[in-house]
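On to my pick:
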Amino acid sequence: MVASSHSVTVRAYKFDGSEHRSWPAEIVQHDGSLVVLHAFFQEEVRHQILGTIPCGTLSVEYYWLDRWYNVFRFYKPNGEVRNYYCNVNVPPEFDGQNLRYIDLDIDILVNADHSYEVLDLADFEENALRYNYPQKIQTRAHNAVIELQQLIESRSFPFDE
């Protein structure tokens, strides 16, 4: 287990290889396939689904190098859990400086009370056609949604706080 903190860059890509977004983060844990990062919102963000995310919001980000999803736990500046946001993605690659993943569009918004909503299924279907997602990728993405739902409903890690 590595628990030393150093800066990394997270890079999210679309299936065609174009970079969708990137942000700086600090690695706080690397234990087997699990990489945990901390990232702070440097400015207020207005998000269509998440609403206004104030400057100073902490995002604790959980990436597994062998799983088809990641989970962000957002904390309000006062330390309360705001919500969770799950991304379905191709398992990331991590070289110690950059964590890269291909976002497969499907997201799950999980409220602090663990109620949740699966989002962007239409975007996934549209992009599956646009980018010609192989059937294996489509199956893995749908399985990732089922696995996330089971983790959320059972309040298993990382939904156990």
In short: Helices lie at 121-130, 135-153.
